[in-house]
Each structure stands twice: as C-alpha cells, then as structure tokens.
C-alpha cells in the first residue's frame, strides 16, 4: 500500500520540481513573475493593503497643506496626495485592479477569437483558410490605439464600462490574428503527423481529431503571446487616458492619474503625481515583457537555437 502511494506521488513531485527548477534558473522569468505577483496581490487585497479608500479626501496633513492638497511624500502619505487631497499610494494600489482587468479581459477575448479560427483554418484549408488568412492580415495592419479611440467615443454612453470594453475589444481584435497565425501554423504541421493519420485510419471523425488530438498539442504555442497581449492592453489604456478618453474620476486608474497630473500647470512642482503612476505602468509592462520573452524562448525552439 505504501509502495503504491509512493510510486503515485513521484510523477507529481517530479513535475513540480522540474517546474520550480526551470523558473529558478531563468532569471528573467523569476523577476517578471515576482513583480507581476506583487501587483496581483495588490489588486486582490487592495481593500486590506491600501491605507485609504481611493476616493477618500484626506484633511490631516497640517496647516501647510490646506485640505491635504499636493502634500509631498511623507510617512503618512508615502506617495503624496493629489489635487483633491487623495492619497496616491491608495490610488496606485486600487489602480492595479483596472490595469489587470484590462489586460486579462483583452487576452481572454483574443484567445476566444484567434485560437478557434486558427484551428479551423489550419485543419480544413481551402477557401476557408484563404478567407480567414486575408481577414487576419487586414486586421493585423490596423492600429489598436486608433480602434480603441473609435470604440471609446462610440461607447461613451456606458460610463467607465466603455473604456474597459474599448480597450479589451480593440486590443483583442488586433491581437487575435497573432494567435490565429501561430495556431494555424501549428495545426498545419500537426495534422500531417503519423498519429493523426492513424486516428483517421481507424475512423475518428474530424471533430474528434480536432478536440482530442490537435487542440491539446497546439495550445502551449499560444502561451508566449499572452504576456505581450496584456502589455499592449495596459499601454492602450494608458494612451486613452492620456488623451482624456480613459477611466474618469473618482475611479482609481494609473492612466487617469497620469492624465490628471499632465493637465496641471505646476506638474514640475509636484513630480510624485506623474512619477508613481508612470512607474507602475512601466513595472507591470516590464514584468510581462520579461515573462513573454522567457515563454517565447521556452516554446520556440528555433529561436532558442539561434540565440
């Protein structure tokens, strides 16, 4: 009984050890995951970690700062306060939720669109393949920011939801062709493999082959694209906010805080207003880029051999 249990546990333990070893030996992946993990914890536990609510106006910075406006970084407010006396550290912490929501929603939409179409195009070929390929190439050449601006204006009646929807769909639509191309090329290779021919020879249907034999073997190749997709969504959101089309007050958002600081005529006197939101956008984008490079090196053997 003990021997059976021992032998059953070995593969699982071995799998986790290999995973841990591969992460620890890849410095880029380790640093990226560490930064991303910290920001993810901030987003999940913002209500506990943040010293104030993101919309709360502080009024206890002393007589030098009436209504706590433009209070510089202190022990009480490590990141200072903004024009309305709101704690910037709290807004940074709560703003991580919007950033991750934008990134994850756009990635999910892009995956849902690009992966199934890539599978269908690569497996069936013919006119369907040509039509989908031409459509993907046309969409791929369209700037995501321009599409996001158009959607943000068109969806203006829906409040903050418009920005989340605009960024998610515009980034997803532009990035869906990336998933489509990668998945299509993988399907074209795998469908010529011997095990696919064997499945066809024993009478397996097309749906069975797609779901049981092809799909599990091609999903890993799209993983490396996900971090870059998320980075694009974060930068698109920041760009919209910088143009005044982003999340509006009092919702905590790094892009809005950047835009709000830019609009001040005395921003050079209050550098913390623009420094900390910009730093967070950079750190999250940097972390995702490190993770994406590491995953691309992992799932792209040709790139690894050339490197």
Describe the structure in brief.
Helices cover 72% and strands 0% of the residues. The chain has 307 residues and is mostly helical.
Largest sheet: none
Q: Residue-averaged pLDDT, rounded?
A: 79
N-to-C CA distance: 48 Å
Radius of gyration based on Cα positions: 24 Å
- What CATH calls the topology is MetI-like fold
Please identify the top-level CATH class. Mainly Alpha
Overall geometry comes to elongated
Helix amount: over 70%
Number of domains: 1
* Portion in beta strands: under 5%
> How many runs of DSSP E, i.e. beta strands?
0
Query: What is the helix/strand order?
Result: HHHHHHHHHHHHH
Quaternary organisation of the protein chains = single chain
Count every helix, treating DSSP H or I runs of 4 or more residues as helices. Answer: 13
Q: What is the CATH architecture term?
A: Orthogonal Bundle
Low-confidence stretches: 1-12, 302-307
Description:
This protein has 307 residues and is mainly alpha-helical. It has one domain (29-298): MetI-like fold. The chain is 72% helix and 0% strand. The longest helix has 37 residues, at 88-124. It is elongated. 37% of the residues are buried. Residues 1-12 and 302-307 have low confidence and may be disordered.
Keywords for this entry:
307 residues, mainly alpha, MetI-like fold, elongated, disordered N terminus, disordered C terminus
Which helices and strands occur, and which strands form pairs?
Blueprint: H1 2-24, H2 27-44, H3 46-49, H4 88-124, H5 126-140, H6 144-154, H7 160-190, H8 194-201, H9 206-218, H10 226-242, H11 254-262, H12 272-299, H13 301-306
Helix pairs in contact: 2-4, 2-12, 4-5, 4-7, 4-10, 4-12, 5-7, 6-7, 7-9, 7-10, 8-9, 10-11, 10-12, 11-12
